[in-house]
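REVIEWER CHECKLIST
Item 1: Sequence provided? yes
Item 2: Single chain? yes
Item 3: Sequence as submitted:
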Amino acid sequence: MRFMAIVAAACLLTSPVAAEVHEVKMLTRGDAGAMVYEPAYLEIAPGDTVQFIAAQGGHNAASIDGFVPSGYAGFKGQINEEIRITLDQPGFYGVKCSPHFAMGMVMLIRVGETDVARPELPADLPQRAKARFDDILEDLGQ
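Item 4: Structure as written out by the authors:
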């Protein structure tokens, strides 16, 4: 019995922590209004995956140029494409729906620990996208 407990403990100590998959729905209408991602904000660990689900048609998920950690190449899914993105680099990632960016269809992902509590929003964001990011950050108390 004692031997089995030691073996079990050794296995637990050597097992890697499994990364999580977080689902985000792309919606024409959701609880927060029109043209939204649900949830609009995620806090995840480095190595976790975000799966964007085309719950309603006509949407995609793409990183916002200038609103990702330095050196990150970005991503862009096709319209109605369900994509999985694994994020390893700590920092803030702004995400947009390309056809509905001007309508404020954006979300924010925080990966791991960051140097700043509140990300600096790009100056060239469409007005509604900026307003939605401001709402997300306000809901977080930032």
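Item 5: Key structural point noted by reviewer: The two ends are 52 Å apart (CA to CA).
Item 6: Recommendation: ____
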